[in-house]
Amino acid sequence: xxxxxxxxWYHPDYAAPNLAESSRAEHxxxxxxxxxxxxxxxxxxxxxxxxxxxxxxxxxxIGLFHSSTWLERAEKPEVLAHVFGLEAGHVDPPRFxxxxxxxxxxxxxxxxxxxxxxxxTGVNLGGGFHHAEPEQGSGFxxxxxxxxxxxxxxxxxxxxxxxxxxxxxxxxNGNSVAFAVDPSVFVYSIHGSVWxxxxxxxxxxxxxxxxxxxxxxxxxxxxLETELHRFRPDLVIYIAGMDVLAGDPIGSWxxxxxxxxxxxxxxxxxxRNLGARVVVTFGGGYGPHxxxxxxxxxxxxxxxxxxxxxxxxxxxxxRFTAIAASLDQGELQGEPMDLEDLRFxxxxxxxxxxxxPRAYRFLDYYSVHGMELVLERYGVLERIRQRGxxxxxxxxDPSDPTHQIxxxxxxxxxxxxxxILVELVCRRRRVVEPLPGLPEAEFIFIEWLLLQDxxxxxxxxxxxxxxxxxxxxxxxxxxxELLRQSVRRLELDGLLAVPSHYHSAVVAQRExxxxxxxxxxxxxxxxxxxxxxxxxxxxxxxxxxxxALADGTPVRWTPGDHVLPLREDLQTYLAxxxxxxxxxxEKADLLERGLRVLPPEEAVRPAETPxxxxxxxxxxxxxx
Length: 624
Fold this sequence. Notes:
Mean pLDDT: 87
Number of strands: 17
């Protein structure tokens, strides 16, 4: 393990909404750095303390590279909209610029640490904003992190020779323009898309036509070492773009993951042989293989072992199943020994005569300590820390058998007070004959699940869904999988919930189904009628009473028991032809009766949807 000589920089603000909301880059995974960190943590290659959180680079430092004219223009929504390919109304300048300046800060900090000799390698799990020129930004790049880093180092007196090795699919026009006449900065590039006429023949190589591993690696091996040996850099900045991979949304080459790994290994080998220190930025790459590629590169830098791993990354379920197997009953039911805990009251011993007996284990199984261990071992708390939250407080209250509570609170600067981030209220629930002819079943019943990030705000492009007061925390899959593993451990039959809003059922539809066939038929009919609507618009139409039959009969959202079945006979019945026929009959009946969307003036405002649980002291959003 070489991680003491390798520094990692990341901040949750890197995952700004610009790429996800841009029509120019569909199906992107814009939380690449976070996913890479999660895998590094899961494989125990790093601990959370190994990750450095960069500050937002001050404008005074950005102004060492960019002109004051561009700094002023970059604050205008229409200018940022052009850079990110968005509508001006979807741009929130302070929010976007904060994310960009964080990304710049990661590269600048890495360059400072490496140039000073405190690290051999610095890795910014983001950055590589190579399209930003001193006078303008473009291609999702507002400020040039590498250009700013060079300017900051020069202002501090660093006189070393700096090479920029840019292996993103797109030419880094920002660096080509900025350093065209600077003999102390060398720009090497192999690219498939030209963004500037300032290419330097011989060291900025434009490959046209089909490009596969063989052609690409041959060109790299025949030119990079020769060019860098001639220049003799002290510091190499490597833009490790993964948009060269086959299938990238905005690339057109055919490189394989193994070929790109060989590329990375060659670049680092050449740099090391020349005695140069290295800073790595992620650059472009947002397709399905980009994140595994960046993970393999980062892992190799940390371990010094340059072996390509042919294995596919484990799925969330596979990882959680492996973790579940590593947890034993003693850990989950044990308590840290404390003599103060051995004091009992009369109520503890005999129970209150006029109330439910007090419970001491969560879901009649987990001790409070064991449940905290589950949250930690499954990585739920670590994922929250990765989002920048500190001082996490975990409250677990199993005292009421009908309302078992898990609550996680935390604070993310500049928040002054802690806020609730996660709140789960659940219990065991028995259902007599859950489906026709099937025996009694017992479920974990989710009465309430709140996952929210109070440090963020909604945008015009992503407005609040009904019931939301804050944007989501992005942990719904992890919480569902955690509860699924608990169902297996407790030998129960599945998960059960009552989705109080239409969008909650839509999000869960892949694995969940309504127990009642007519309710499932209604849901599928709504899905058919609203299929052309974005999720926000669709759930608003349902919430606002905008659906009716041809005769004017209102069609309201009537939530019922929604199940994720794990017992085999439940799964078999829900997938049976008999069940499918009943659901399709209800769906067809509603569609034949003219289920449609009403114009706004004809809306029938529904009564408030009942929910199974409401925390009296809170105004938090309700529902799954």
